[in-house]
Amino acid sequence: MTRRTGRLRPAGVLLLVVILAAVPFLLASYPVSLGGRILAFALVVVSTDLLTGVTGMPTLAQVGYFGVGAYSAGLVGIHWTDNLIVQLAVGTLAAGLLALVTGVVAVRTAGIVFLMVTLAIGELIHQVADRLDFLGASNGLVGIPAGTLYPGGEPLILAGYTYWWALLVFLLGLTVAYVVAKSPLGLSMRAVRESPTRLRAVGQSTYVVRLVAFIIAGAIAGAAGTAWTAQTRFVSPGDLAFSVSALALLSVVLGGAGTLWGPAIGAAVVFLTRDWLAANYFTGHADLLLGIVFVLAVFLLPRGIAGYQLSRRSDPPHSGAAA
Amino acid sequence: MNPVTATDPSVPAPAASAPLLLEVEGLTVRYGALTAVDSVGMRLAVGRRHALIGPNGAGKSSLFAALAGAQRTAGGQIVLDGQEITGHDEAQRAKAGLVRTYQHSNLFSGLSVLDNVRVGVERTEGQPLRPWPRRRADRRIVEAAIESIERVGLADRLNAPVSALSHGERRQVEVALVLACHPKVVLFDEPTAGMSAAETHHFAALIESLPDTMAAIIIEHDLDVVFRLAHSISVLAAGKVIASGTPAQVRDDPAVQEAYLGSGRGDEPLFEEVSR
Ligand SMILES: Nc1ncnc2c1ncn2[C@@H]1O[C@H](COP(=O)(O)OP(=O)(O)O)[C@@H](O)[C@H]1O
Ligand SMILES: [Mg+2]
User: Fold this and answer.
1) Contact A320/A187 with Cβ under 8 angstroms?
2) Residue B204 contacts by C-beta under 8 Å, 6 or more apart in sequence?
3) A1 domain-assigned
4) How far apart are CA B194 and CA B176, in angstroms?
5) Do both B160 and B41 map to the same domain?
6) Each residue's pLDDT tens digit in chain B (276 positions)?
7) Is residue A199 part of a domain?
8) I need a surface site. Which of A9, A216, B102, B144 has the fewest CB within 10 A?
C-alpha cells in the first residue's frame, strides 16, 4: 500500500475555497454554525493524520491539545482580550508547549504502547478540565465574550462571521500541514513511518523527528481549539472526551490516512452523521449510524475516501520537491 | 604457507602505509546464554574490501548489528578512522561514517526510489528537520540523490515505489542509499543473496567501483564473489574468528576446511580457483 500526500491542483483548490467561503450566503444560520464546528474538528483530524498517516504514529491525544487551545482561548477572552488573533496565538502556543512536554516521554514509545500513552494524555487533559474550578469544572467554561479581529472592532456574533474565522484558521492549519508534508521534515516523517530502524541506520535520530512532528501536530490541534471557542463561546469537558478522540482517529481512516485532505473530508462525514443525520432523523442512534458508516467504509473504500480518488485519477507517484 | 589462526584474529596490515579505517577489538554479543559473537577483533585499512564468511548461525549478522550499534554488546571496542565510537548509538555511528545494509532488505518501501535516497542525502548534505520546502536547497538534494541513483544504474526507476522493485533492484537502492550517507566503512550483509547471475555480476562491478577512500566488509556466501572482491577474508564459526588472512591463506587453512567440510573430506577442494 502506498500512501501519499494528495497533490494540490490550484484551480480545484480555489474552487473549493470559494464554495466553502460562500456557505454563509447559501445556508441558514444553524447549518452554518454546524459547518464552522466541522471545520474546527476537521483541522484536529488533519493534525491527527499528520501523526497517524504521515509519520505512522496513530494517536488519541490530539483532542486533548485541541482542548488546551479551546480553554486557553476562552481564558484569554475572559481575563485578557477578546482579540481572536491573540487567542489563536496563545492557544496554538500553549498546545504546542504541552505537546513538547508530554511528547518528550510519549514519542519514546511506538505502536500500541504509544497509542495507550496518548490515550492517557488525552484522558488526563479531560480530567483536569473536568475538575479545575477556574476552568468551570464539569459545567464547562462559560461567559466567553464574542471575539474581535482588531482593537475596537465589531464583535463577531453572527454565525456567518465566526464561520469565516473558523474557515480562515482551518485553511491556515491545513496549509501548514501541507507545507510540513512537502518539506525535508515531511520526508523524514514518512521515512519514520516506513522504517524507523533504517532511518537510524542512515544516521538520523528517529526520536527527534517524532518529537518535532508531535509538537507541530499538537500546535495545529490547539489552533483548531481556538476556532472552536470563537464560535461556541463555551467549552465543555465533553468536547475533549475519549469518544471525540476515537472519532478523530476513525475520520483519518475513513478519509484515507496520510493524504491530509482525505481525513478532512472524513471528519465532515463523521461530524454530519453524528450531529445532523442522527440528531434530525435517527434520534438517539448516533453510535449505530457511525458504526454503519465505518463498516460500509471498510468494505467500499478500503483505502479511504482519498484512496478512491487517487486510484481513479491514477496520479503519478508523489516525488516531493522534484514535482 | 602461514595461516592466521584464531589466536591472532587481526587481518595483516595490507598496503604499506594505508591508514586504518576500522579497528575492532574483543567485540562480544550475547543473547542470554548464547554467545553469538565471541571476542572478535578485526582491522580494515582504507580502500580495502574484507569478506566475512562462515556457516549460517556463525554470528556474522550479529557482528554487523553490534558494529552498527543496533545490538547491545557485552564488551569490545570500536575505533572508526581514529575516533572511538563504542559509546555512540546507531544514528551517531552512521553519522560518523559506519553504515550498514541489512541481510533482509530494509528500505522505506512505500516511498519512491528517489525519496529513499533523498532521505540519505538530506541527512548528510541537507536539513532533515526543516519544516518548510526551499526550492533551491531541495533541488540540490534531489540532484545529488539522482546522481547516486544513476551510479547504481537505476535512473529509469526513479519514481517507482521501492515495493514495486525486484529483489536485485532493491539491493541497488540499498547501495545508492548507503553511498548517499558518505560512509567511511560500509557493512554489506549478504548483498547478492537471491540475485540472478547477471544481477550478481552487476553488483560486484558496482562494489569494485566504490571510491578507494572508503572500505567495506562484505558477508557473502557466493565464493566467486568473495574471491572476486575481497582483499582479505575472515572466517567466523560459532562466534569466533577461526581464520583470517589473504584469500590464499584462508583457502589453505586446515581449520577452515574443518569448519566448512567436516573432517575426513579434506580431499575435496574447498574453493575452486577463480579466473579473474
Ligand atoms: N535477536 C536474537 N535473539 C536471540 N538469538 C539470536 C538473535 N539473533 C541471532 N541469534 C542467534 O545468534 C546466532 C548467530 O546468528 P546470526 O548473527 O544471524 O548468524 P549469521 O548471520 O552468521 O547466520 C544464531 O544461533 C542465531 O540463532
Ligand atoms: Mg546473517
Assistant:
1) yes
2) B192, B225, B228, B229
3) no
4) 19
5) no
6) 343 434 444 444 444 467 999 999 999 999 999 999 999 999 999 999 999 999 999 999 999 999 999 999 999 999 999 999 999 999 999 999 999 999 888 999 999 999 999 999 999 999 999 999 999 999 999 999 999 999 999 999 999 999 999 988 999 999 999 999 999 999 999 999 888 898 899 899 999 999 999 999 999 989 889 999 999 999 999 999 999 999 999 888 888 777 665 544 444 445 544 433
7) yes
8) A9
**Which of B182, B204, B232 represents a domain boundary (last residue)?**
B182
Cα distance from A216 to chain B (closest Cα, Å)?
Answer: 9
CB contact under 8 A, B128 and A185: yes
Q: Which A residues 184-213 touch B at CB under 8 Å?
A: 184-188, 190-191, 193-195, 197-206, 208-209, 212
**Which chain B residues are Cβ-neighbours of A185 within 8 angstroms?**
128-131
Tell me if A125 sits within 8 A of A244, measured CB to CB: no
CB of B56 sitting under 6 A from ligand 1? yes
Cα(B126)–Cα(B70) distance, integer angstroms: 24
Closest partner residue to A202 (CB to CB) among B119, B127, B131 is: B119
DSSP label at residue A150? S
A59 with A103: CB under 8 angstroms?
no
Domain count, chain B: 2
| Domain range for B164 | 107-182
Q: How far is the CA of B239 from the centre of ligand 1 (A)?
A: 10
- The cell for A65 is 491539545
Burial of A61 (0-12, 13-18, 19+ CB in 10 A): buried
Q: What is the pTM of this model?
A: 0.89
* Beta-carbon separation of B133 and A319 below 8 A: no
In degrees, rounded to 5, the angle at the alpha carbon of residue A218 between the alpha carbons of residues A216 and A223 is 95
Domain housing A110: 22-239
Q: Which residues of A touch B114 (CB under 8 A)?
A: 319-320, 322
Q: Which residue of A has its CA nearest to B176?
A: A202
Query: For residue B231, how many other CB atoms are within 10 A of its CB?
Result: 18
Are B1 and B125 in the same domain?
no
User: In angstroms, what CA-CA distances link B60 with A121, B11, B220, B234?
Assistant: 43, 16, 10, 10
Is the CB of residue A144 less than 8 Å from the CB of residue A85? no
Of A185, A187, A208, the CB nearest to B118: A187
Task: Tell me the chain B residues in contact with residue A307 when contact means C-beta distances shorter than 8 Å.
Answer: none
Regarding whether B136 and B83 lie in a shared domain, the answer is: no
Cross-strand bridge partners of residue A158: none
Residue B102 placed within a domain = no
Instruction: For B59-76, give one letter per residue: b (16+ CB within 10 A) or e.
Output: bbbbbbbbbbbbbebbeb
Return the best residue to mutate from B29, B30, B31 for the ligand 1 pocket (most ligand atoms within 8 A of CB): B31
State the pairing for strand pair B215-219/B185-189.
parallel
Whose C-alpha lies nearest to ligand 1, atom 21? B61
Give the CA-trace dihedral at B172, B173, B175, B176, to 10 degrees.
120
Query: How does pLDDT run across A35-61, given as a tens digit for each residue?
Result: 999 999 999 999 999 999 999 999 999
Q: What is the pLDDT of residues A55-70, one digit of tens each?
A: 999 999 999 999 999 9
